Amino acid sequence: LGSSLRGSLDKLRGKSRLSEEDVAEIVKEIQRSLIQADVDIALVQELSSSIEERALNEEPPGGTSARDHVLRIVYEELVALVGESTDLPLESQTILLAGLQGSGKTTTAAKMAWWFSKKGLRPAVIQTDTFRPGAYDQAKQMCERAEVDFYGDPDEEDPVEIARKGLEETADADIRIVDTSGRSGLNETLIEELKSIEELVAPDRNLLVLDAAIGQGAKDQAKAFGDAVGIDGVVITKLDGTAKGGGALAAVDQTDSTIAFLGTGEEVADIERFEPNGFISRLLGMGDLKQLAERVERAMSEQEAEDEDWDPEDMMKGEFTLKDMRRQMDAMNKMGPLSQVLDMIPGLGGGLMDQLPDDAMDVTQERMQSFKVIMDSMSEEELENPRSIGKTRIERISRGSGKPEETVRELLEQHKMMSRMMKQFQGMGDSDMQRMMKQ
Ligand code: GDP
Ligand code: MG
C-alpha cells in the first residue's frame, strides 16, 4: 500500500497546482491504509473531507510545490486525527485502569509502574480484581519483575475494600496505579463495580485499556466506560502483533481523550509513551511516513514555519535544548568526536576551539551512554527547558536513571557549555555550518 500512495504523490512532481483528481487519488490511498488499520469509517471520512477541503482551497505558500503542499496538509490532518499524547506530569498521582477482561490492564499496570520508576518516581500497583482467579498472583509477579510496590489481598472479596486498604498501605508511593477487573463483555456488574472503586479512589486520571485488535467495538466500549467514570486517556496494548490499533481512535474520539501509552509486548519494559509521529507511521506503514516527514520538513523550511518540530535554525538562534543535545549526540555517534566534527567546519578551526576548556570536548562514548540514560529519565518539559531542573529533580532523575547525581549535574554542565558554544556560532551565517547542523 505504501508504494501506491507514493505513486500518487510522485504523479504530482513538477506540478504547481492540484487538480480535484489529484487530491481524490491521494485521499483514496490514505483511506485505504487507514481502513486496513481498522480506523473507524466515520473518522476516515472526516479526515478525507478536511484534506480535500484544505488541499483545494488553501493557497500553497510561495515556492511550495503542489506535492509538498498536499503532504503537509495530509500530515497535519493525520496528527489531528491521532491527537497529542495524554498529559502525564511526573508528580504524585493516582491512575485508575479500566477495560474489558484480557485487554491488558494488569500487564499495563505493571508496565506503567515500571515506566514511572524509570523516571525516578516511586510507583505502587493496587490490584482490585477479585473476579478472575489468579489475578492476584499475576499482578504480584509482574510487579516483582518491575521491581515496584504492590498491594492486593487474595482473601478479600470486596474490590472497594481492597482499594481502600490499598490506598492506606501505599501511602509512601508517588504514583498509585489501581488495576481493576474486567468482564468478557460490557455488563452492569462490571460498570457498577468500577463506579464504586472510582468513587472511593477519586483518581487523578482514568485510563481505558484497549487491545490493538479492537475493531468496531471500540466506540461502544468507550461510551460505556466514559459514561460510567469519565476517560482521560487510552492505552493501546498488543501493538507487537499484526493489529495496528487504528480501531482505538474511535474510543479516543468518543471520550474526547488522548492516547497515553502503547503496549508492545508481554514484558514490563514493553511500553512506550504515545507519540503522534510514530503512531502515524505505524498506521500508514513506515515508508510512507518517512517520505511524508522528509517532504514536510522541506515544505516547512521553505516557509519559515513556527513549528514545534526540531529546526536547526532554532539552534542557531541559541535556543539549544537538551533534546538538541541528544540529537547532536546521536549525530556525533555517526560522525565521530565533536572536536573532529568542528575541525571539519571551514573557518572554525582555531579561534573558537582555543577559547574552550581542554576537556570541553571530552564526551566519551561511555559518558554519552550515561547521558542518554539520564535523558530518558527526564520529562519532555525538562528536556525542553533544562533550567527547570533543580535539586529535587536532579535527585529524582538520578534515582530513575540509576546514575549518580554527580553525573546528572555533569550532563547539565555539558549542556550549558554546548549551549554557550551555539550562541557563539550565532550570526556566523556560514552555510557549511548550517548544513552540518542539519545532518
Ligand atoms: P487484563 O485482563 O485486562 O488484566 O489483561 P492482562 O494484563 O491479564 O493481559 C491479557 C493477556 O494479554 C496476557 O496474556 C498478557 O500477557 C497479554 N498482553 C498484555 N499486553 C500485551 C502486549 O502489549 N503485547 C502482547 N503480546 N501481549 C500482551
Ligand atoms: Mg487483570
UniProtKB/TrEMBL annotation:
It catalyses: GTP + H2O = GDP + phosphate + H(+). It is an enzyme of class 3 (hydrolase). GTP binds at residues 99-106, 179-183, 237-240. Residues 91-266 form the AAA+ ATPase domain. Keywords: Cytoplasm, GTP-binding, Hydrolase, Nucleotide-binding, Ribonucleoprotein, RNA-binding, Signal recognition particle. It comes from the Archaea. Its main location: cytoplasm. Residues 1-82 form the Signal recognition particle SRP54 helical bundle domain. Residues 92-285 form the SRP54-type proteins GTP-binding domain. One of its GO terms (cellular component) is signal recognition particle. The keyword Nucleotide-binding applies. Its EC number is 3.6.5.4. It is found in: Cytoplasm. The keyword Repeat does not apply. Part of the signal recognition particle protein translocation system, which is composed of SRP and FtsY. Archaeal SRP consists of a 7S RNA molecule of 300 nucleotides and two protein subunits: SRP54 and SRP19. Belongs to the GTP-binding SRP family. SRP54 subfamily. Involved in targeting and insertion of nascent membrane proteins into the cytoplasmic membrane. Binds to the hydrophobic signal sequence of the ribosome-nascent chain (RNC) as it emerges from the ribosomes. The SRP-RNC complex is then targeted to the cytoplasmic membrane where it interacts with the SRP receptor FtsY. This is Signal recognition particle 54 kDa protein. It comes from Salinirubellus salinus. The lineage of its organism: Archaea, Methanobacteriati, Methanobacteriota, Stenosarchaea group, Halobacteria.
